[in-house]
Design a protein that fits this description.
Blueprint: E1 24-25, H1 31-40, H2 48-60, H3 75-84, E2 85-86, E3 91-97, E4 103-109, E5 113-121, E6 126-129, E7 133-134, E8 152-153, H4 156-170, E9 189-192, H5 202-213, E10 225-229, H6 233-243, E11 246-250, H7 256-262, H8 271-279, E12 290-296, H9 304-313, E13 319-325, H10 339-351, H11 384-390
Parallel strand pairs: 1-2, 6-9, 9-10, 10-11, 11-12, 12-13
Antiparallel strand pairs: 3-4, 4-5, 5-6, 7-8
Helix pairs in contact: 1-2, 4-5, 5-6, 6-8, 9-10
The structure holds S-adenosyl-L-homocysteine (SAH) and iron/sulfur cluster.
S-adenosyl-L-homocysteine (SAH) is lined by residues 140, 142-143, 193, 197, 228-230, 250, 293, 295, 324, 326-327, 370-371.
């Protein structure tokens, strides 16, 4: 565990021409940003491309955190880097391991805020669920994060830093002098399904995912990254064109009246508008289907009629439906649908020709399952009574 009291370096997102006082964190800069920073620190123009590549590989392929370890750089150049820059990722405040192997990290970022990151090991892969905001501006009535005010967007360093922190904990950087491991990766997939709405922090999420995908670094395929949105319609197309990752949509209801209550952003962009954006999604194809996430809430959205309507609504979209049994949290105004109900619902969708896996809740004993994340330090936005009233219960 890292020392939780150590100071945290502020990330600089837009670099001025001259370097500001105090060190700049190199983590989270795009390749162009890194090049600009190295130039501003005095790297000769002629060397800029080579130096950028070298430093990038140390940071993201080898996971090095100390300029002194960048052994293919001259001593003088290492000293220059150390004078101007730092290499900082968020600090792990605590780690809990579930009986099913799921790891939940509480991560501290600048300003003393906290977010949660969850690692879910599976037989042939491992998925890291990362957060994009502290809290959330949206108020989905079944989501624990939705009861917490938005505090701020995470920076690219804080987003990619969650991936680097998990690789540290999993011991997944190559040994010094060795090439990156080629066997099945422990951290093979990323889902942007932690705290926050990633499409309300688009640029930072994009820059961080570009770093994750860069072939000279962490090198995850774009098909191994899934971004989940509650339905921020105007930003959906950019996810395909500017990031290129897979898309998941928190659908959760088949009629506007119900979706208005569950996913209030529906009042801004309703089901029809959301479906139009998904039909136009540039990357959707049979090999890159859009995932429709559907939380199973007892007597709210789980009837046979709902399942039939859902199939009808998605019929022109390359889609699969991921059914998520509701994960309870203290004060939640809903109950999980019964296993029989969930199976019957899944079956209707399957019969209509769509994959309809039921997501097994992971890490429930440590409150790490979908929708259970919330940082204990931030002030709650709503009381239990308010949550219930707004959900119309
Ligand atoms: N803000 C984004 C991503 C984070 S939530 C979004 O809403 O899509 C990741 C998924 O978990 C979403 O589909 C969300 O609707 C779902 N979820 C939220 N609370 C849940 C809960 N209590 N039980 C089950 N799933 C939940
Ligand atoms: Fe925010 Fe997603 Fe939770 Fe809705 S489900 S409150 S968008 S984190």
């Amino acid at each position: 565990m890292t020392d939780a009291t150590a100071p945290i370096t502020q990330d600089v997102l837009t670099l001025p021409r001259k370097l500001p006082d105090g060190p700049i964190n190199l983590i989270g800069l795009t390749r162009d940003g890194l090049r600009d920073a190295l130039l501003a620190a005095g790297t000769p123009e002629k060397q800029a491309k080579m130096r950028t590549g070298q430093v990038w590989q140390w940071l993201y392929q080898k996971g090095v955190r100390d300029f002194g370890d960048m052994t293919n750089l001259s001593k003088d150049y290492r000293a220059l880097l150390a004078d101007h820059f730092t290499i900082e990722i968020p600090q792990v405040v605590s780690k809990q391991v579930s009986s099913d192997g799921t790891r939940k990290y509480l991560v501290r970022i600048a300003g003393g805020h906290e977010v949660e990151t969850v690692y879910i090991p599976e037989e042939d892969r491992g998925t890291l669920c990362i957060s994009s905001q502290v809290g959330c501006t949206l108020t989905c009535s079944f989501c624990h994060t939705g009861t917490q005010k938005l505090v701020r967007n995470l920076t690219p360093a804080e987003i990619i830093g969650q991936v680097m922190m998990a690789r540290d904990d999993l011991g997944e950087w190559p040994e010094p002098g060795r090439n990156p491991k080629n066997e099945t990766r422990l951290l093979s997939n990323i889902v942007l399904m932690g705290m926050g709405e990633p499409l309300y922090n688009f640029e930072n999420v994009r820059d961080a995912m570009k770093i994750a995908m860069d072939p000279e670094g962490i090198s995850l395929s774009r098909r191994r990254i899934t971004l989940s949105t509650s339905g921020v319609v105007p930003e959906i197309a950019r996810t395909a064109t500017e990031i290129g990752c897979l898309l998941a949509v928190s659908f959760h209801a088949t009629e506007d009246a119900t979706r208005d209550k569950l996913v209030p952003i529906n009042k801004r962009w309703n089901i029809a508008e959301l479906l139009d954006a998904l039909k136009a999604y540039p990357k959707a194809s049979n090999s890159e289907r859009i995932t429709f996430e559907y939380v199973m809430l007892k007597d709210v959205n789980d009837s046979d009629a709902d399942a039939h309507r859902l199939v009808e609504l998605i019929k022109d979209i390359p889609a699969k439906v991921n059914l998520i049994p509701f994960n309870p949290w203290p004060g939640a105004p809903y109950e999980r649908s019964s296993n029989n109900r969930i199976r019957a619902f899944a079956n209707i969708i399957y019969q209509a020709g769509y994959a309809s896996p039921i997501r097994t809740p992971r890490g429930e004993d440590i409150m790490a399952a979908c929708g259970q994340l919330k940082s204990a330090t931030e002030r709650a936005r709503k009381s239990r009574a308010q949550i219930a009233a707004e959900a119309g219960i």
